[in-house]
Amino acid sequence: MFDSNRAGLASLYEDGSMLTFEGQKIQGSQNIVAKLTSLPFQQCQHSITTVDCQPSGPAGGMLVFVSGNLQLAGEQHALKFSQVCVPSTSIFVQFR
């Protein structure tokens, strides 16, 4: 969704969600999407190389780590990316 409709990512974040991007901490769904939609490139393609999930906490939570490559239009070399998230229960319900 990041590659084609960044604004559509809003439903994946909550008010308490935090994005750290190049040392800048951004909190809340609206602020995170504003940051993602303001990035200086419009076209990109993610290539995921790893997805690791681990149980987290006594309530049955999950820690998800994703890494891969991000190819920007017109660039020869891909950028590396990694993302760690702790999805809320409401996220799992959305993807059923």
Give a verbal description of the structure.
This protein is α+β, with helices and mostly antiparallel strands. It has two helices and five strands, in the order ββαβββα. Strands 3-4-5 form a three-stranded antiparallel β-sheet, with no helix packed on it. Strands 1-2 form a two-stranded antiparallel ribbon. The longest helix has 9 residues, at 29-37. It is globular. The relative contact order is 0.16. Mean pLDDT is 87; it is low at 92-96. This is NTF2 domain-containing protein. Keywords: Cytoplasm, Nucleus, Protein transport, Transport. InterPro entries: NTF2 (IPR045875), NTF2-like_dom_sf (IPR032710), NTF2_dom (IPR002075), Nuclear_transport_factor_2_euk (IPR018222). Interacts with RAN1. One of its GO terms (cellular component) is cytoplasm.
- The oligomerization state is single chain
- Spatial strand order of the main sheet: 3-4-5
- Per DSSP E runs of 2 or more residues, the count of β-strands stands at 5
Distance between the termini: 17 Å
What fraction strand? Answer: 35-45%
Q: How much helical structure, as a percent, in the residues?
A: 10-25%
Quick one: overall form? Answer: globular
Spatial extent as radius of gyration? 14 Å
**What pattern of helices and strands is seen along the backbone?**
EEHEEEH
